[in-house]
Specification:
The chain is mainly alpha-helical. It is built from three helices and two strands.
Length: 95
């Protein structure tokens, strides 16, 4: 499948990029070769091949899903420019 300059113009408009007339033929060839490569990949038989999430077989460490307060109130409030009674103090927005 070879793209035309008109199709490149449409793609450029959708992507919101400016393409000169000289660049349209170049990009038509580049995009066409990418599409051909993807079509070639689609021909590969992948029946029976499990999906991969990583190149190394591993499982992530998990922790219990428990609701806690984090036990870090003092450390968190220490980052605030102004705090009172363990809470952030912010300026009034509405009267």
């Amino acid at each position: 499948m070879a793209l035309t300059a008109k199709e490149v113009t449409k793609i450029a408009r959708l992507a919101r990029i400016r393409v000169t007339e000289e660049e349209k033929e170049h990009y038509a060839g580049e995009i066409s070769s990418i599409i051909q490569w993807v079509e070639q990949l689609a021909e590969v038989n992948t029946d029976g091949v499990p999906q991969m999430t990583s190149v190394a077989a591993m499982t992530l460490p998990r922790r219990k899903d428990e609701v806690t307060d984090g036990n870090q109130v003092d450390a968190i409030v220490a980052n605030a420019p102004n705090s009172d009674y363990g809470c952030f103090v912010v300026p009034k927005v509405m009267e």
